[in-house]
Write a structure and sequence with these properties.
179 residues, alpha+beta, Outer Surface Protein A, domain 3, 2 domains, 2 helices, elongated
């Protein structure tokens, strides 16, 4: 039995869960998320919890059991509390500015880089313009947007300059030995 899949998902107050066939809709104070889970999986709502069960012990359903439960749990958490991801911009002259649903980055190139935020993700920059905070309700989309922003200028392995996740540790290489 899947250790993750067998745990029930607690539904906090203010979050509404609806099932229609293989479509689950989670509506909370932060927003609404929908997801089509695998047709064979059994999802049921009892009292204030969601229970995910698999129909058989085939390899396909064993692999989907924990995944289905985790995605639904992320939907419940996202619509009730939301998710936040912090990115640090490190380097002389490196900064970010927000203009509506777009972020303008100055990352040492000859031109500014414009990054359009998808719907459902909001961004905020601190006073120094070096700390970027992303907020949203969809954990998957949040992680993908953060990874795309980090890919604009990944941390340099010699000096550590670039965009990194908050708390990410970069192991710096030693440069060439001088004579």
């Amino acid at each position: 039995m899947s250790r993750v899949g067998k745990n029930p998902i607690h539904v906090p107050e203010g979050v509404d869960v609806k099932l229609q066939g293989s479509l689950i809709t989670v509506k909370g104070p932060k927003g609404e998320l929908k997801w089509n889970y695998a047709a064979g999986m059994k999802v049921s709502v009892e009292d204030n919890s969601i229970i995910v069960e698999r129909p058989s012990d085939t390899k396909q359903f064993r692999s989907l059991h924990g995944t289905t439960r985790s995605i639904i749990a992320n939907m419940v958490t996202g619509t009730s509390a939301g998710y936040e991801r912090i990115l640090e911009i490190i380097g002389v002259g490196y900064r970010a500015q927000i203009q509506g649903q777009k972020i303008n980055f100055m990352l040492g190139h000859s031109h500014p880089i414009e990054f359009a935020l998808p719907q459902g993700i909001s961004a905020e920059v601190d006073k120094k313009q070096t700390l970027l905070t992303l907020r949203g309700i969809d954990k998957h989309l949040m992680g993908q947007v953060a990874a795309n922003i980090r890919a604009l200028r990944p941390p340099n392995i010699y000096k550590g300059k670039g965009i990194r996740y908050a708390g990410e540790i970069i192991r710096l290489k030693v440069g060439k030995a001088g004579k």
